[in-house]
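Hey,

Quick one before I head out. I ran the complex with zinc ion overnight. Inputs first:
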Amino acid sequence: MTVGTALAVGLCGVEGSIVEVEADVGRGLPGIYIGGLGDAAVGEARERVRTAAANSEMAWPRTKIVVSLSPAHMRKHGTGFDLAIVCAVLIANSDNAEAKGRLRRTVLIGELGLDGSIRPVRGVLPAVLAARDAGARWVVVPEANAQEAALVDGIAVGTAADLQQLWRWVLTGEGIATPRSGAPGQAEFAVDLSDVDGQSQARFALEVAAAGGHHLFMQGSPGTGKSMLAERLPTILPPLTRRQQLEVTAIHSVAGALDQSGTLITHPPFVNPHHGATAAALVGGGAIPRPGAISLAHHGVLFLDEVTLMRPAVTDALRTPLETGSIAHVRTHHRVVFPCRTQLVMAANPCRCGAAYASECTCTATDRARHDRALSGPLCDRIDINVMLTPAGAIVGTGEPGEPSAAVRERVVEARERAAHRWRAQGHAAELTNATVPRARMRRQAGLNPEAMALLEYKLKAGELSRRGVDKVIALAWTLADLDGAATFTFDHVTTACGLHDEKIY
Ligand SMILES: [Zn+2]
């Protein structure tokens, strides 16, 4: 028997599937051919595995070697197949049944250095999850990825520093290191809402945004605390569930944005790209699609500061993903989808110079026109809550520390539970927030309060609210009711919601 088999994982975005690597060592001129829709990095594995094996004093066959990666229809990217390729070749001529059996139960993930060392790769967490779900008993990963792999329960994790150590384990079942599982979660937040003095209006808007999952837009002069508030939104959001933690960590792993300590991302992430960022940086992309800022902010907060300075093409690219909660990148032969259910927070100065058309405003007419145009942009359509921060609001503090995040978070969690219970009772997924419940359903529920509906009808006719605005006000009214512990929203909730929404119709 001259065919060797080993297992690896191929990733498509954050979805992994098992790849079977077969190596046929036969007669013919020495050489190695790798087939099965691999990219350039997979093709280059030829020289890497041969050199690494030679430098590790392995008996590399001096004949023709054909390696096939299957399923053949699946695109394979990167250097993570090296270990499986080298083991499939080395085992091909062996009659060690025990070793062959071990390779059949083990998924190998890692890149080989020319000296035989095993190097870290991206996306280990989703790869190990896929290996476990496919029924693999063991997974071997590079040492530097050990903690990340150990986050996954239900599969034994081994790590090897180099090819010699790995091969010894394949042959004998001994000599591999096993990392301790249960890597620590993230440390507590470094910031807290108690740091914010005054700005009671904005703090209230932030709480409502958190409780209903509503998108928020803060306008105010520099120094009024817009970034400070935005940064603290994750501290009052409900903690991530275990499933959400793994989802978020997997995205960061694929993006290469995880540190080697293998820390599980346990808090809602906060991502704040620069206003000069490209569309690709925001929504992801590339020949092998990588997640962008909006996906890194999955189950967390995407903060766009100075949003009026962003190019319209860039903000426009965010519109659909924000609505659908996922973004697809289509490439030849494959399609990669990244989730991006994120809460948007935007901030802007009231004008380009920040003085808001007051006597000291130095903006030109062109500046003002550009600023106003940016505010009427498509992304502003997605905003549920508009809040104006005034310098006076920052001054009217008591000097005492504000209410801490933990206390606000408690109310937010209760409100979200009330909303989830209501929408679940009507057959919706438990994860829906007031901001994401289908509009038609929301409208039908709104009929509960004819007095409030009459007000909205009036505002619609008077041109003070758009159709979309009416839906947003109703969603906000539900959130206010949830925060109050009320069974349904009242007329007062609707008027408060109108104030929070305060739509500008251009
Ligand atoms: Zn100005």
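The two ends are 75 Å apart (CA to CA).

Talk tomorrow,
K.
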